[in-house]
Amino acid sequence: MKQEELARFLSTLSGTPDRIWQLTQGLDRKALTWKPSDGAFSVLENVCHLRDIEAEGYLVRIERLLREDRPTLSDLDGNKLAREREYNSQNLTAALDAFRTARVRSLTLLKGARPISWQREGHWDGVGRITLEGLLLKMIEHDRGHLDEINQLVDRLAERM
After folding, report:
1. Backbone angles phi and psi of 26, in degrees to 5
2. pTM (2 decimals)?
3. Spatial CA neighbour of 51 closest among 122, 105, 7, 12
4. Structural domain boundaries of the chain?
5. pLDDT digits (tens, 9 = 90+) for 22-56
6. Domain 3-160: assigned CATH number
7. Burial (CB count within 10 angstroms: exposed 0-12, middle 13-18, buried 19+), residue 103
8. Residue 24's closest CA among 39, 44, 4, 40?
9. What are phi and psi of 44, to 5 degrees?
10. What pLDDT digit, counting tens, does each position of 111-137 carry?
């Protein structure tokens, strides 16, 4: 991966918490917890999900890929976490702050990775073989998916009002 590309990817990831903050400004509790259908996440559930997947998923995977030889990386069940942790009862500001903190830790590790480290690999349950570079790309894809979902929810909420 070229340095310019890496810098762009890391910048994209560092901007996610601010994008979420911008999207959620002015939303009241009812709007934050509204779900368009059963099985869908609310805005608040998306943020809590991003927090937990960052702290307990991506950060742990980055640490292990950098430290261990070919680690087995566990997958997390986001829907199960949402139910068990009752995401819609949580505080948006606290969840977003915790997501930001975990993301900064992930980015610090990624920025400090040596060029050769980007090809370190492990096995991610349910995904298969993955390198540190591949994990970075998964993080970007995951962020984009949730940002798109939050955008759509905010748009639908605006239409309803």
Report:
1. 85, -5
2. 0.95
3. 105
4. 3-160
5. 999 999 999 999 999 988 999 999 999 999 999 99
6. 1.20.120.450
7. buried
8. 44
9. -60, -40
10. 999 999 999 999 999 999 999 999 999
